[in-house]
Amino acid sequence: MPHLGHDERYDRADEFMEVAFRLWDSWEPDALVLDASAHLCDPDKVHYLNHVGRWFQSRGPLNIPQGPQAARS
Question: Any idea what the Cα angle at residue 70 is, between residues 66 and 73, rounded to 5°?
Protein backbone atom coordinates (compact mmCIF):
# COMPACT_ATOMS: atom_id res chain seq x y z
CA MET A 1 0.00 0.00 0.00
CA PRO A 2 1.52 3.35 -0.96
CA HIS A 3 2.03 6.08 1.62
CA LEU A 4 -0.60 8.76 1.82
CA GLY A 5 0.27 12.25 0.69
CA HIS A 6 0.86 15.03 3.19
CA ASP A 7 -2.66 16.49 3.03
CA GLU A 8 -4.34 13.09 3.14
CA ARG A 9 -2.34 12.09 6.26
CA TYR A 10 -3.54 15.21 8.06
CA ASP A 11 -7.12 14.74 6.83
CA ARG A 12 -7.08 11.18 8.18
CA ALA A 13 -5.59 12.31 11.51
CA ASP A 14 -8.24 15.05 11.81
CA GLU A 15 -11.02 12.53 11.22
CA PHE A 16 -9.48 10.13 13.74
CA MET A 17 -9.38 12.83 16.41
CA GLU A 18 -12.97 13.85 15.64
CA VAL A 19 -14.15 10.25 16.10
CA ALA A 20 -12.11 9.79 19.29
CA PHE A 21 -13.45 12.98 20.89
CA ARG A 22 -17.02 12.16 19.88
CA LEU A 23 -16.68 8.66 21.34
CA TRP A 24 -15.37 10.07 24.62
CA ASP A 25 -18.31 12.48 24.64
CA SER A 26 -20.86 9.72 23.93
CA TRP A 27 -21.41 9.43 27.70
CA GLU A 28 -22.72 12.54 29.42
CA PRO A 29 -20.80 13.31 32.64
CA ASP A 30 -23.70 12.22 34.87
CA ALA A 31 -24.71 9.11 32.86
CA LEU A 32 -23.44 6.66 35.48
CA VAL A 33 -26.01 5.72 38.11
CA LEU A 34 -24.03 5.21 41.29
CA ASP A 35 -26.74 3.94 43.60
CA ALA A 36 -28.34 0.63 44.55
CA SER A 37 -30.62 0.52 41.51
CA ALA A 38 -30.41 -2.27 38.96
CA HIS A 39 -29.24 0.17 36.27
CA LEU A 40 -25.61 0.93 35.53
CA CYS A 41 -26.34 4.04 33.50
CA ASP A 42 -29.08 6.35 32.34
CA PRO A 43 -29.64 5.30 28.69
CA ASP A 44 -30.86 8.80 27.80
CA LYS A 45 -27.37 10.08 28.62
CA VAL A 46 -25.40 7.64 26.47
CA HIS A 47 -25.42 8.50 22.76
CA TYR A 48 -24.68 6.71 19.51
CA LEU A 49 -22.07 8.26 17.27
CA ASN A 50 -23.00 6.81 13.85
CA HIS A 51 -19.91 8.26 12.16
CA VAL A 52 -19.27 7.23 8.56
CA GLY A 53 -16.37 9.14 7.08
CA ARG A 54 -13.77 8.73 4.41
CA TRP A 55 -11.34 6.88 6.68
CA PHE A 56 -13.30 5.64 9.70
CA GLN A 57 -16.69 4.26 10.68
CA SER A 58 -17.97 3.99 14.23
CA ARG A 59 -21.41 3.36 15.59
CA GLY A 60 -20.38 4.06 19.16
CA PRO A 61 -20.88 4.68 22.01
CA LEU A 62 -17.88 3.54 23.97
CA ASN A 63 -18.62 0.59 26.23
CA ILE A 64 -17.35 2.55 29.27
CA PRO A 65 -17.59 6.20 30.30
CA GLN A 66 -14.53 8.38 29.98
CA GLY A 67 -12.30 8.61 33.02
CA PRO A 68 -11.85 11.82 34.98
CA GLN A 69 -8.41 12.37 33.45
CA ALA A 70 -9.97 12.70 29.99
CA ALA A 71 -11.79 15.94 30.79
CA ARG A 72 -11.03 18.58 28.18
CA SER A 73 -11.61 22.29 28.41
Answer: 125
pLDDT of residue 33: 83
Give 35-70 pLDDT, tens digit per residue: 777 778 888 999 999 999 999 999 999 888 877 776
**Is residue 18 left, alpha or beta, with left meaning phi > 0 and alpha meaning psi from -120 to 50?**
alpha
Closest CA to 15 of 42, 46, 52, 48: 52
Q: How many CB atoms lie within 10 A of CB 52?
A: 9
Spatial separation of the C-alpha atoms in residues 28 and 36, rounded to whole Å: 20
Q: Is 1 helix (H, G, I), strand (E, B) or coil?
A: coil
